[in-house]
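README, section 4: Worked example with a bound small molecule

Sections 1 through 3 covered apo chains. Here we extend the same pipeline to holo records, where the ligand is supplied as SMILES alongside the sequence. The molecule in this example is S-adenosylmethionine. Nothing else about the input changes; the structure line simply encodes the ligand pose together with the chain.
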Amino acid sequence: MSISDTPSVSSGFSLNAADYDRAVRYNIEGAKRLAEALPGPAYGSVLDVGCGTGFSTMAFVNRFGTTEITGVDAAEGMLEQFRAKLAEQPQLTVQLEVADVLDMPVPNDHFDAVISSMAFHWFPKKHEAAASMARPLKPGGHMAILCSGRGAEDEFRRILTEIYPPVPQWIGAFDLVQRDIDEMEGYLEGAGLEILDIWMERRIRRVPVDEYLTRMRVVASHLNKGYSEDELADLDAKITAATHKAAGPRGFEYTFTKLFAVARKPA
Ligand SMILES: C[S@@+](CC[C@H](N)C(=O)[O-])C[C@H]1O[C@@H](n2cnc3c(N)ncnc32)[C@H](O)[C@@H]1O
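The generated complex, written as structure tokens:
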């Protein structure tokens, strides 16, 4: 299977949407820090690409008092979770669209900010995705992206390489999704944007094994496509045993690298 298969990425997220917010507490912190990184002072309208359940959008609303938000995501299930939260935000004008990043039903040169938190790494065609996200941005507006960086979770990759029979789609996913600073610069400059700030953050986390594996099941279940139920149960048992074995008394220790970028569309 290919990770560039967007329908299967989005169906994995849809399937696990109800568990998403509980499983990804680090993404919630990351979205807040992405919002902190934008120069401001205010953004009236924001487009969130791969908005998921909406907590990245809400981080921007809370920081900048944004009133017009558009969220685009390929997974209807994730947007349903977002919709449920919006009942508590009657002051917002909201449009949620099920669409691929390359085919967004949004106007040109319209939004004060275009953001994307922990979704860009799943977009198969990254140059095209950056150009597609730059199109609806107003001249002078800002783009902010947070995604998985090169080297993230190599400890888990090592565990997977020792699993038999091999799980090439899981192992291959690391190289397909992770990017470095120079690659992100290429995407953004290729889309005609000026880079204001770009950095990689490397953290060492220790979490209980069950918490780690729950997050993996929620964010990467589309990599299981093609397995029978029995095969999946067997694979899950092997990965769980190997992760417990690799864990220390303080839990499973892994490295997480996040790539942040803030850019501007020339006025
Ligand atoms: C890890 S979630 C991130 C959600 C949210 N932005 C956050 O900060 O938690 C990634 C999201 O990207 C969406 N996605 C993946 N590929 C996509 C594509 N090609 N076009 C649009 N959305 C996509 C998934 O459906 C999923 O909701």
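What to look for in the output: The first helix runs from residue 6 to 15. The beta strands are 45-49, 68-73, 93-98, 111-117, 137-148, 194-207, 252-264.

Section 5 describes how to batch many such records.
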